[in-house]
Amino acid sequence: MVHHNVCPLCSSEKIGLQLNCTDYFVSKKEFPVFKCTRCGFSFTQDYPEESEMARFYESDNYISHSDTSEGFSNKLYRFARSFMLHRKQKLIQNLTGLRKGNILDIGSGTGHFVNTMKNAGWQSKGIEINENARNFAITHFDVNITTPDKISAIEADVFDCVTLWHVLEHFHDPYKYISEIYRLVKPGAICVIALPNCSSYDAKHYKRFWAAWDVPRHLWHFNTTTFGQFSGQTGFILESLRILPLDVFYISRLSEKYKGSSLSFLKGMSKALVFSFLSVFKKKKSSSVIYILRKSIG
Length: 298
Hints:
Layout: E1 15-22, E2 30-36, E3 42-44, H1 72-96, E4 102-106, H2 112-119, E5 123-127, H3 131-141, E6 144-146, E7 159-165, H4 174-184, E8 185-196, H5 201-206, E9 220-221, H6 224-231, E10 237-243, H7 247-259, H8 264-281, E11 288-294
Parallel strand pairs: 4-5, 4-7, 5-6, 7-8
Antiparallel strand pairs: 1-2, 2-3, 3-9, 8-11, 10-11
């Protein structure tokens, strides 16, 4: 069990319980989420050691590592994924100014994004810890996916872009990985990190039922302010923010389910529409935020 006596972000001892959240996917256990009163950072407390974490991903419901189309939820997920894959491709091309380049996707799951970029003409590589997901990607897409322990063997200054789509919040040592990413990207190249936003409209509404707490798999719970503090310690320059517009619908539907609501799908969709509309005017309140980091040239 990992317990923090100080804030993992600013090292302040002024930390305390924010709320208790339930692992609805696997264990049904409660895990506390603490908050630092000095910097405002939220983090999961008393979570399993890295060597013990694998069993908390062993669920058919954890669909980032599955490719089933059974059930309405998975069908909806697949539709949204198809839409967002092409949106992500265009985003990367616009941000890098390149039609083709060299890209690394960390936490590549079943390889759909790596394959999308490969089909767009990019030299694409993925890193994925889950063996079943990794094997699926290699078998179905013939893409280059390796294990996380191989990251230190990759040559420095080779990538035009490194992406982490809802991955950084899972790392036991995010500073270690961001340091490796900084080494891997070319000078002037970018790192794209998508994260749930614990200060979003939906997080504030659903409180402990907010699905994106996702304890104990999500260890770190950023908002735009605390991520800015984190990125300031990495060597990268935080260049801009974007939003992932469809995440709020999936998260709101799950949150209603966790609350035990009747008609959870309809309630989740209707509330997500409201949250989505409001976040158009305040990106920093969006359910998921994409952070664009750039490595300096000098």
